[in-house]
Amino acid sequence: MVRRMKSDLPPLWNGKPRFPRRVPHAREVDYSDSAREAYSKLAEYARSRRDGQGEGKAGRTAADFVTTLLKKRFLSSPKAFAETISTHLETMTSRPAAPADEPPPSVRVLRPLIDGVEEAEEDSEQEQAEAAARALSAARQAMRPLTEREHTLLRELDAWAVAAGKRPDAKFARFQEWLDGVVCPAGPLGDWEPERVIVFTEYRDTQRWLYGQLIAAGCPAERIAQLHGGQDQDEREQVKQVFQESPGLSPVRILLGTDAASEGINLQAHCHRVLHWEIPWNPNRLEQRNGRVDRHGQRADQVDVHHFVPRGWQGFDPAHDHHTDSGYEDGALEDELHFLAVAARKTERIREDLGSAGEVIAAQVEQKMLGRRSSWTTADAEITKRSGRAALKVERDLARDLERLVDALTDSRQQLHLHPETVERVVRTGLLLAHRKDLTEVPDPQPARNARCFRLPELPGAWARARNDGLRHPLTGTERPVVFDEAEARDRTDVVHMHLGHRLVQMCLRLLRADLWSSGAGARLSRVTARVVPDGALRQPAVVAHGRVVITGSGGTRLHEEVITAGGLIEAGTFSAGRMEEVDGWLAEATEELPAESVLTELTGLWPRLEERLARALNTRANRRFRSLGTMLAERCEQEVEGMRAVLEDLGRSIRARLDDTGHWQQESLFDVDDERRQLRADREALLERLRRLPEVTEKETAALRRRWSDPSPRWFPVAVTFLVPRSLSMITRQENR
User: Fold this and answer.
1) Using 50, 70 and 90 to split pLDDT, how confident is the model at 134?
2) pTM listed for this prediction
3) Thinking of the domain 168-390, which architecture would CATH place it in?
4) CB of 254 within 8 A of CB of 197?
5) pLDDT at residue 155 tops 70
């Protein structure tokens, strides 16, 4: 099997790549002696706490949690570190240790509190502080008291964090230098370029600090937007809409986002630059952030991803992948920042098939930051093996399946006549029936695009709510014209696409369905029409009946539904059946023009002589269709059974591969304790049980699918009649009438 990366796909017709290149960039930072000294003290404190916990598993868990939290916050910003070191110092000194006869909290108690710290990162400031205080207080009870040296280290780190927040920051200085060159070369008080930048950070504290630093540097508040999980839904949606709009409509140039902004949203419309304020310890999170702009719809030829790195960094080119030695003392600030940059470089190399290889990278980062032995040499083989395995799994039959689905979509659109013109006719007819109003064609706001644009009429009540759904521009508040062709609405926000799911289209469809089957004096929609066709398509009148075919399975499940046609020529006042291909050709050539009134009168008079034979032709067509559908339905049943079995077989292979992954079941994690081992054993037993039950599940699902498709019951209903009249006949009749 040949592996296909995005970069391996052939270019477009004009020679341009199908996807933009992603280019990582390094922004070297020369850290101050004060920062290096502070980090050295933090590393000393972490070693002292780890080495002094003895064999107590809860104590080691608590110590590792504190180390992880403090190091992550230190590497993020002085503000984030100051908040955490202050809380930790307070909990370690102001609260007495638990009584000797009271057992310390177990890992089972610590784990939810520790997990809650990360979960609270997107909450309010008070909730974040409370979550950190709860976890650090519980950790205090599980750890031994501070030694005199440890107490001194914490006090010195606390004082440094407070002072660092008031001093110029080396990383922010490098950031501002780069940022000004992109968005405001003449300075924040000068002209701003129509360029945008996203800055991702892990912590809300850091996001606030960055905002304050930018404001203090003279950046106008209107140029900055913030996106984080603590915002209410309406505010978040407004920020996203503003950032996705053209820079000509919004002054926003800088988006400060926490990781909540990297979860499932699109930010690529007018931005191709991402800067990571800190490199996440989990490579999957790194990819989530990058994926907000490196995705389908990105207009730039290149996506630029920026990382802060220490002085002396070798580069992000894969040719440097074997350079993993930082050249700094083990555990020093620059050494650990270099290690994170190497992790980012390896993530970039395997990003398109990251899979479980990301777990290996995350484990290496964790081991390094906790001061345990860690080597990229031993990890590289496992990374390569896992990433390749993920690629093979994902790419299996992908091209074939994609081609099949595209063909099926195209066929469905043709069979159901799902064209822009059809949807437009549905809306026009619905508006005419309900309110005697119509669409108004208007010029395209972008004349070069030359799209067919329409203005919706004013409507009352529920129709007004459906009409106004998304009609106003989110920034300007002006009503936008609508289009019916998806291609004409692509990559623009100055028009609204009226698709099948739009509320107004749905209301029109419901109205048409109701009127189609209504009868009597209240009927507003006729089920009989006449249309003119060119002489080249038809030389004498014809009549076509339309019928609705419905096939239900066991229990009344609808298996299939379609509209069929049958028709023929009107010769000597009687019906002469035509071939299906002929009838389809006549209908395809029909115009919107109505025949002369005298022709309509004659056709009405002929209807009693045509009705019986036309109904017989439609019945014959329905019965033939039922027979052909029998084979098709049987094939669909088998396809669903085969698809279900393939999914369950893939699941079985995945479970077996996971069970065979001895490294996972023997992993050393941050919480390497009895509770964690018991959970791993429980996970393994659950997988074994699931694998054991797969044959039974397969048989049950197979039987259920076969029952669903069994005993198909066909029915058909006449729907409408269309008379087709050659243009020459209609014109002759008009002349005779004159």
Assistant:
1) confident
2) 0.74
3) 3-Layer(aba) Sandwich (3.40)
4) yes
5) yes
